[in-house]
């Protein structure tokens, strides 16, 4: 059974959450780090919310696209982990 760590990105379905798994690997020939994102549907019985870091475990197929269950919530998303949005620059006109 696989155990994966990811972040909940959607809880719009009634009993299922979408979890994003980010994996980084080194290219075997060139050595560059390659990042891959996978979206996995997982059964959400423990009430994980959007932005939570979770551990998911592989189970028997529950539906066509659901093969995982959320096992544990590791924590909430912190402000430093969120992508920083650039601040809007507002032009202030000086009076002369």
From TrEMBL:
Record keyword Ligase present: no
CDD domains recorded: Ribosomal_uS17 (cd00364)
Keyword Transmembrane helix carried by entry: no
Signal peptide: none
GO CC annotations, alphabetized: cytosolic small ribosomal subunit
Protein keywords: Ribonucleoprotein, Ribosomal protein
InterPro entries linked: NA-bd_OB-fold, Ribosomal_uS17
Gene3D superfamilies: Nucleic acid-binding proteins
GO terms (BP aspect): translation
GO molecular function, one term: structural constituent of ribosome
Family: Belongs to the universal ribosomal protein uS17 family.
Name this polypeptide is given: 30S ribosomal protein S17
